[in-house]
């Protein structure tokens, strides 16, 4: 009986070890980023932030505990942010408008739990820790016949002192991997951190969607 139990235990351990799998590799793709500003900032009440279309690039590592469950960590870089446009008003002789672009150079560190519906198809949920390395704003003042950048007021300015460093964003996503290791994924990260650091009492949040491709090395 003891021998039977020992053989069964060894067999279970062997199956478990075989199910464990470590993979790693590069990934890159397209991102759509938005900035949400609440009503506490009076000068921005009538402004609507539009999506900024950008990219991301980096690497990932995945560990599967068994055929169904795994964890994944990544390190990515993406210039996130948003755009805001103010419709022109009649200034007497010209029709003046304004467009502002905000850029957050962000190091993303997403960590997620994964559930494998099939060997190649999985869903994931986790948290994205974004470290904002730089924050810049560029405003263009335009008219019917003129586009003008005003340095210091309308040109590109550093706003890092007004933006907090950490952006926490929970996310959900899906992934499909081919047998050769090539994979495609998509996810949405909802920014929950208030990034405003200017003391005005306003609330600034950065959310973003990502669609990308990568390749996984390793595995059994």
From TrEMBL:
<dbReference type="InterPro" id="IPR011250">
    <property type="entry name" value="OMP/PagP_B-barrel"/>
</dbReference>
<feature type="signal peptide">
    <location>
        <begin position="1"/>
        <end position="19"/>
    </location>
</feature>
<protein>
    <submittedName>
        <fullName>PorT family protein</fullName>
    </submittedName>
</protein>
<feature type="domain" description="Outer membrane protein beta-barrel">
    <location>
        <begin position="19"/>
        <end position="196"/>
    </location>
</feature>
<dbReference type="InterPro" id="IPR025665">
    <property type="entry name" value="Beta-barrel_OMP_2"/>
</dbReference>
<keyword id="KW-0732">Signal</keyword>
<dbReference type="Pfam" id="PF13568">
    <property type="entry name" value="OMP_b-brl_2"/>
</dbReference>
